[in-house]
Automatic annotation (TrEMBL):
Domain YchJ-like middle NTF2-like: 28-121
Entries under Gene3D superfamilies matching the protein: 3.10.450.50
Protein's recorded name: YchJ family metal-binding protein
InterPro entries with a match to the protein in the record: NTF2-like_dom_sf, YchJ-like_M
Amino acid sequence: MTNCYCGSSKTFENCCEIYIKGIQKPTTAEALMRSRYSAFATGEADYLVATTHSSTRKFHKKSDILAWSKSNQWIKLEVIASTETTVTFKAYYLDYQLKAQIHHEHSTFTFENGTWFYVDGTYQ
């Protein structure tokens, strides 16, 4: 068994997969962000749409999310900083031309009705 895509020392089955499959809910913004990275790595577009806040969901089409997820090879996640409602991270990946890329984002999250949601992010 390999470590989770999010970079934890746990296996995927005991880490982000429990969130992606709806077995448990992430308890922090960082846990949600890590599970969303794992969802990109595994092509779980439904989870990415479901965990995007309703106020910004209209800006994220499932087909676009899935295409971006599948066209890249996800290498690793580096969490730079996190607060209760924000996470700054770098996602390392190879694009469709196998060129190394870094997605550096400062993301904002909100907690509503017992569930964390991704609201938006600014690219660094």
